[in-house]
Design brief:
The protein is mostly helical. It has eight helices and no strands. The relative contact order is 0.17.
Length: 145
């Protein structure tokens, strides 16, 4: 059996690179959004510098576990690239990723960030769906072979 997505991406040399690439992806995605999302993101960054990177690092393992079925499905067929595979299922992928953030936001000690997340959550599915192709390419860059 092949190595899990989580094992590949969280390898000691890979994880910090992936986290930084995810931060860059979030930055690019936010810049393409409306004033409310850009403002909320800017506020969180000002209130707690490093929060976004720490949040991504803290959520990464759970996100990868939610993405494992997509990776296994793609690995079994190797039909197209992983990014295209995720893009074809972007609503489902986005919902699975948001389940993780919903669970974390409900128990977060960072009340300001959780409050902002709650305000932005209604539009989150559309925004995460738009990021799925970039996330797929990011991950694909770290897959073997």
């Amino acid at each position: 059996m092949s190595e899990s997505l989580k094992a590949i991406i969280t390898a000691e040399q890979t994880r910090p690179v992936v986290v930084d690439e995810c931060v860059d992806l979030v930055e690019r995605e936010v810049q393409g959004k409306g004033l409310i999302i850009r403002g909320a993101y800017s506020t969180v960054k000002k209130i707690k510098p490093g929060f976004v990177k720490a949040a991504i690092d803290g959520l990464l393992d759970d996100w990868l576990e939610r993405m494992e079925p997509y990776y296994k499905d793609w690995s079994a067929s190797k039909k197209g690239d992983f990014s295209a595979h995720l893009s074809d299922k972007k609503s489902s992928v986005a919902n699975d990723l948001l389940k993780v953030t919903d669970e974390r936001a409900a128990t977060s000690e960072h009340k300001t960030a959780a409050k902002m997340y709650g305000k932005l959550r209604p539009s989150a599915l559309k925004n995460v769906e738009s990021a799925v192709p970039g996330l797929g390419k990011l991950i694909e860059g770290h897959l073997p072979g």
